[in-house]
Amino acid sequence: MGEIKEGKVSGLIPRNEGFAVHYPGYPSSTSRAIQTLGGTESILKARSSQSNTLELYFRPEDPYSHPVSGELRSCHSMLLKITKKKKSSPINDAKQETDEFHADIVARIPEAYYFEGMADYEHVVPVHADVGRKRWKNCKKPGLMDLGPDDVMMLPPPLFSLKDVPENIVLRPPSTSSSRKKQDELPETHPKMTFEPALGIDFKDVEEIPKEINWKEFITEGTPMWEWQMVVSKLFEEQPIWPKYSLIERLLDKNLKFTYQTLKRLLLTVGYYFSGGPFQKFWIRKGYDPRKDPDSRRYQSIGFRVPPELKSYCDANTAKGLKHRWEDLCKFRFFPYRNQYSFQVYELDDDYIQQEIQKPSKQTSCIYETGWLSPHVHYSLRLCVKVRFLSLYPETGAEKFLKAASEKFMKSKRLCIYKDAPKPVQEEHQQTNEDHETFKNNEASENQVDVEVDELESDDGEEELDTWNGFGW
Q1: How far apart are CA 71 and CA 64, in angstroms?
Q2: I want to staple 328 with a disulfide (CB 3.0 to 4.6 A). Which of 5, 96, 195, 333 is the partner?
Q3: What distance in Å separates the CA atoms of residue 238 and residue 254, rounded to the nearest whole number?
């Protein structure tokens, strides 16, 4: 322990490290300060998270209290333990006591939390905090609350400000670098080129589709926007219907990565999509209506949903940020990391699937549930996809699901043969009558799952493109 002389102390710097909290006030005790920071568990949680912020509630007993945030910054400080000793010294035969201060370097402080922002304006209802907590608990209970005539309505107010540090944003002069960056990110706009509403088209009720436009008249040739639009247009000339992930992967293979606004404008220039049906959320070339073309059955969607008992594997890998290439999933090389996918029949690398979609369609119209494919063929293709993916599950637990799906798949294949066979052959296959009943029950169950999944997807918003962050991965 070194003595403090003239504001200086000497000693050995230990290897122990810690962190500091520059508390914006004078708490009554250390325990009270820790309580306003959420307790030891909240502090440890903030230390282990990636947010670099620590929340402080001046009234932790009040559930409506707004927090102030402390920002974690690096520093070069040390934690000192200071002690005061009284020293007696004889002066003129009289003892005089003086104070000596000593300091011990406990730990190094490489980072600390600084509360430099302002507290948000807050209206506090003049009721006791304990009463407020009881009302807060009652709000979480289902049903109506019993409120007396003298009860004060507790409505948590919204935040009045999204920022806690004032900024001069009105009179700030624009900088050259930020302006140039902003111009590079914004797509080239053309007032004369109009677009239809960027919402999904109803598959059943809307008969007229968006018409093709000549975008070359409105975009300057030789500009980056011209080159990007040309690449996207060629993809739609190559194939009239594209799944979102397949289209994005093709653009990435061409070393093209756009911002959200640019990608949205590129797609809306040449394409549209249906909000439901067999081509749900697939981008379709303007001027092309797959409901009138039986050959569009090869571009229909086939869904795969991971059984709920196996979702823990997907959630664990998704949390790690792992993902597969779309091409690898279409070739059945890996088990998916997401719980649900909509694949395009044309892209699936399976002999049975490709053989079925090459057969001429017997449907006279494109129906909402199965498109140009007959219900029994559509059901059989879905079972085929399910069997292929369940056979790739890398852990234990999928055996019973694989066995059940394989049995259903074999029955559905026999039913497809029975449906396509001439009448004399049908009489020789009496067993298929039982398979037909089983198929109808299974199809009803699978379709019910599809309806639930579609409803969940529609809850995310009719315009799925708005949920993309960059490319939406």
Answers
A1: 22
A2: 333
A3: 15
Q: What is the DSSP string of 307-327?
A: -GGGHHHHHHHHHTT----HH
In a 13 Å sphere around the CA of 417, the CA atoms on its Cβ side amount to 15
How many C-beta neighbours within 10 Å does residue 36 have?
Answer: 19
Residues 101-142: tens digit of each pLDDT = 888 888 999 999 999 888 876 766 665 555 555 555 555 555
| pLDDT tens readout for residues 288-334 | 999 999 999 999 999 999 999 998 898 888 888 888 899 999 999 99
Q: Which residues, in sequence order, are bridge partners of residue 103?
A: 2, 82
Amino acid at 322: L
Give the sign of the dihedral formed by CA 103, CA 109, CA 110, CA 114.
Answer: negative
User: Which residues does 438 contact at the CB level (< 8 Å), separation at least 6?
Assistant: 408, 411
**Cβ count near 388 (within 10 Å):** 20
Beta bridge partners of residue 73, listed in sequence order: 112
Nearest to 283 by CA among 239, 243, 246: 243
User: Most distant CA pair in the chain: distance in Å?
Assistant: 133
Token pair for 373? 């494919």
With beta carbons less than 8 A apart as the criterion, state whether 151 and 111 touch: no
- Amino acid identity for residue 324 in this structure: H
| pTM across the whole model | 0.53
DSSP letter (8 states) at residue 273: -
**Sign of the dihedral defined by the CA atoms of residues 407, 412, 417, 423, in that order:** positive
Residue with tokens 């294949």: 413
Find tokens 């907590």 and name the residue: 133
Tell me the CB-side half-sphere exposure of residue 221, using CA atoms within 13 A: 2
